[in-house]
Amino acid sequence: MRVMIAEDNVLLREGLIRLLTENGIAVVGTSGNADKLLVLVADDAPDVAIVDIRLPPTHTDEGMKAALKIRAEHPETGVLVLSQYVEVGLAMQLLGDSAAGAGYLLKDRVSNVKDFMDAVARVADGGSAIDPTIVSALIAKQRKRDPLDRLTPRERDVLALMAEGRSNQGIADRFVITLRAVEKYVSSIFSKLDLPTTGSDSKRVLAVLLYLRG
Amino acid sequence: MVPLRQGWGTSGTIRLGLLAFGLLLGATAFVDATSRGVPPELSLSFLSGYSWAYLVAGAIAWDARPDSRIGPLMTAVGVTGSMLLFAGSAVPGLSLLPLAGVPLMNLFLIWLVLSYPSGRLSSRLEVATVGAAGLAVGVVYFLLRVIGPEVMDFGAWVLLTISTFLLGLIVHHGVKASTAARAGLAPMLVAGLLVVLLFSGESLAWLVGISTEIGSPYQWACLAAHVAVPVAVLVGLLRQRFARAAVADFLVDLGDNPGPAELQEVVVRALRDPSATLAYWLPEYDSYADVDGRQVNLKPVPGRAAATIVSDGVPVALILHDAALDEEPKLLASVTAAIGMTIQNAQLQVELKARLEELRGSRIRILQAEQSERRRLERDLHDGAQQRLIALSLELGELGDRLNGDAEIRTRFDAARQEVTASLAELRDLANGIHPAAVSDHGLAVALESVATRATVPVQVIGATQDRLPEPVELAAFYVVCEALANVARHAGASSAVVDLERTPGALIVEVRDDGVGGASADGGSGLRGLADRVEALGGRLQVWSPQGGGTRLRAEIPCEL
Residue B289 and residue A83: Cα distance in Å, rounded? Predict the structure, then answer.
C-alpha cells in the first residue's frame, strides 16, 4: 500500500511516517502544505492521501479543499482527513454523493494503532472510515425524534459500526460473532429501517449516514 | 478711506464718472440725431432701450454688488450702446463711432449674458465665442458701411451661425446649472434667449427679403428684448434682497434652542440650496461632524464651497453649499450670522452623537480585539499542546503494542494512555470554548449543523447556506444559536426547536424558536445580556419574545457591513 501525508506539524508528520512504515505501509510522499500534496498526487497517485484539515497558509480550510479536489480528480486515490474537531457537516461535504475511499477521523485516533491501520486500509480499498464521534452524535440525534426502538441494542451497535464504514468481517471481529450472525443483523436493520439494500460497504455507509442525518 | 474690494471693485467716483459719460454721450447722440431729422421720440426710445436702461441698472448692480463684474459690464453695454445712434451723423468724427460701438456693445452684451451672475466667463470656449461674436459683428458692420447692403447676402449667414452657437451655449448653461443656481439664472437666460433669437431673426429677415427698418414693429420687439436684460439683472438683485429679508423669518421659526436637524432644514430653505449641509466643528475631536455625528470630509470638490459660522468670535461650524451661492455673499453672511447666534445647542447635540459614534467604534474594536485574541489562543493550543499530546499518544500507542510481560505494568500503561486521551478531549473542548474554530474555518452552516445535532431536542436548521459572511457576523450568529439552544435545554421544556437564518441585503437575521413553556426574560440571564452586547456592538439588536406558555422566540439582526 502506498500512502502520502500532508501534515504541517513536523512532530506529528514524523510520528505518522514511522507508524505507517513500521506497519508495512510505504510512505511515498510527504508535504507540509496542500499545494505540494496536490502536485505529488497528480504526479503519482497513491492508494491513500492522509490530509490534515488545517494546513498553511491560513490554517482554515486548505486541507479540506485539497481533500475534495483529490476526491474529484483522482477517484482511485482514497482520502483520509484528520482533524482536531469533527463536524457532521464536513463529513457529509467530504462524502458528497459517495462514501467510497473517504475517511474523516479525529486526530486522536492515531493512538489506537490497530483501529487506525484498519481505517487506512479500508479507505485504500475504496471503503470508508467515519469517526465514531460523528456516528454517535448522529445516532443520538436520530433517537431524539425516532427512538429506534424497533432495533435491538445489539442491532443499534451494528448500525453504528456500519456507519463508521466497517465491513461485516470487521463487525464480526469486533463483537466476536460469526460473519453469518452479522449478516443477519444487517438485513434485519435494513428491513426495520426500511432502507434499500445496497451492494458495497461504502454505499451502505452513505445510506445509513443519510438516514441518521434525517 | 476707500474700502478694499475684490475684483473690479472701484471707487464711487469712477462709477459716477462712467455713468455721467454714458449719459452725456447719449445726450450728444440725441442732439446729433435730431439735427439730421431723426424723429426725437424714435431716438429717445432707441437710447433708453440700448443705453440708459443698462446705465441705470448697471449703476444699481454695481452699488449692490461691488465685487461682481455685472455692474461694470452693464455700464459698458450702456456706454457703447449710445454710440450706435451716431450712425449717419453729419459730423465727420462722430459718424465713425458706431464702427467701435457696434462690435463692443455686442461683445459686452454676450459676455454679460453668458457670464451672469458672476461676470466671469467659465471656459475658454466661452471667451472665444464672445471674442469671435464681437469680431464678426464688427467686420460685417464695417463692410456694410464701406461696401453697402449687398454685404449682408453673405454677412447674414455669418451672424446666423454665431447666433445659433450662442443659443446653444445659453441653453447649455440652463441645463447644466445646479438646482441652487438655476432659479437665480432663469430671468437672465430668458432675456438672453430673446435677444439672440431676435438678433438671428434680423439676419433671417434679410435673407428672405423682409424689411426691418428702424421704426418697424420688428425693431420695437428687438428694443423690448434688449430692455429685458437690465430687467433680469434688477429682478436678480431683488430676489437676493428678498432672500436676505426671509432669513429673519427663518430665525423666528428657529425658536430658542433649535436642534441640528431643524438648523439643517432652515439652512436649506434660507439658501434655497437643497444640497446645503451643516458641518459642526468639534474641538475635542479636532474635526468636523455632520448632524449624525459622523466625521465630514472637507476635501475641495468642484462646484462646492464652504462658509464659516462664527459664534463668540470662534468658528463653530461650516455651511457646505453650492458654489453658485458665492454670488450672493450678503445672503450667506446673513445666514451664517443668524445660525451663529443659535448654534450652541445643536453643536452640543452633534458632539453627543459623535461620542456615541466613537463609542460604537470602540465597542466593535474591543469585540474584534477579544476575538482575535481568542483565535490566537485557540491556534496556539492547536499548534502546541494539542499536537504534542497527539504525537505523544501516537508514541504511546506504538509502545503499547510492544509491551509484554508484567500484567500490572500493562494495566498502568493503559491507564496512562487513557489519561492522555481524556486530556486531549478536555483540551479540545477548552480550545473550542475559547474559539469555535469550525465557524472561522468552515463557516456558519457547517458549525450550526453540529450544534443542532448535539442539541437536547430535535432542531431543524432553515436557510443555512455555504456563503461566507464576515467572521464577527458568523461568530455572533453562532453564539446566538448556541446560547438559545442552551436555554432551550435548561429552561424551556420544549420538544423541538427551529433555527431560522435569513439573509437580507444589509443583515443576517437569526431566529431561534422553541415550543416550550416561555416566560424567559431578555435581561434574565447574564448569557442573554452578553449576547445582546455582542450583537449591539456590531450595530445589530437582539429581541426576545417569551409569553407564558407560548414558547420562546429569540431574534438577532446582525448587520453584515461593518
Answer: 50
* Cβ-Cβ contacts under 8 Å, A140 against chain B: 453-454
Closest CA to B535 of B513, B509, B501: B509
Amino acid, res. B221: A
B461/B351 same-domain check: no
Q: Let me know: does B483 contact B534? Beta carbons within 8 Å.
A: no
Q: Which of A12, A16, A108, A111 to probe the B interface (max B CBs under 10 A)? A: A111
Residues B307 and B409 in one domain: no
Residues B369 and B365: their CA atoms lie apart, in Å, by 6
Question: Which ipTM score applies to this complex?
Answer: 0.93
Residue B1 inside a domain? The answer is: no
Q: Could you tell me the three cell numbers for B239?
A: 430676489
Q: Do B391 and A141 touch (CB under 8 A)?
A: no
Q: Is B363 a member of any domain? A: no
Q: Which residue has the cell 492515531?
A: A110
Note whether A59 contacts B: Cβ–Cβ < 8 A.
yes
State residue B426's pLDDT score: 94
Instruction: Indicate whether B175 and B46 sit together in one domain.
Output: yes
- Does A108 contact B440 at a Cβ distance shorter than 8 Å? no
CB contacts of A143 in chain B (<8 Å) are: none
Q: How do A48-52 and A102-106 pair as beta strands?
A: unpaired
Residues B328 and B194 grouped into a single domain: no
Residue B525's pLDDT is 63
Q: Does residue B6 fall inside a structural domain?
A: no
Lowest mean pLDDT across A134-138, B7-11, B94-98, B511-515: B7-11
Task: Note which residues in 121-150 of chain A have CB less than 8 A from chain B.
Answer: 137-138, 140-141, 144-145
Confidence band of B311 (pLDDT split at 50, 70, 90)? confident
Measured in degrees and rounded to the nearest 5, phi and psi for residue A152 equal: -75, 160
- Mark whether B346 and B207 lie in a shared domain: no
* Domain extent at residue B403: 368-434
Q: Which pairing describes strands B459-462 and B314-322: parallel, antiparallel, or unpaired?
A: unpaired
Number of domains in chain B: 4
Q: Record the cell numbers describing residue B384, joined without a space.
A: 502546541
Q: If pLDDT is split at 50, 70 and 90, which confidence band does B4 have?
A: very low
CB pairs under 8 A between A and B: 99
Of B382, B398, B445, the CB nearest to A84: B382
Contact A89 B395 (CB under 8 A): no
pTM exceeding 0.90: no
> Do B186 and B87 share a structural domain?
yes
Task: State how far the Cα of A10 lies from the Cα of A17, in Å rounded to an integer.
Answer: 10
CATH number at residue B53: 1.20.1070
Please state, in angstroms and rounded to a whole number, the distance separating the CA atoms of residues B71 and B58: 4
Domains and CATH numbers, chain A: 2-130 (3.40.50.2300), 134-213 (3.40.50.2300)
Whether residue B4 is contained in a domain is answered as no
Question: Is B379 touching A (CB cutoff 8 A)?
Answer: yes
Q: For B52-67, how does the pLDDT look when each residue is reduced to its tens digit (9 = 90+)?
A: 999 999 999 888 888 8
Q: Which residues in chain B (142-181) have CB-CB distances under 8 A to chain A?
A: none
If asked whether residues B349 and B413 sit together in one domain, one would say: no
CATH code assigned at B551: 3.30.565.10
Whether residue A60 lies within 8 A of chain B, CB to CB, comes out as yes
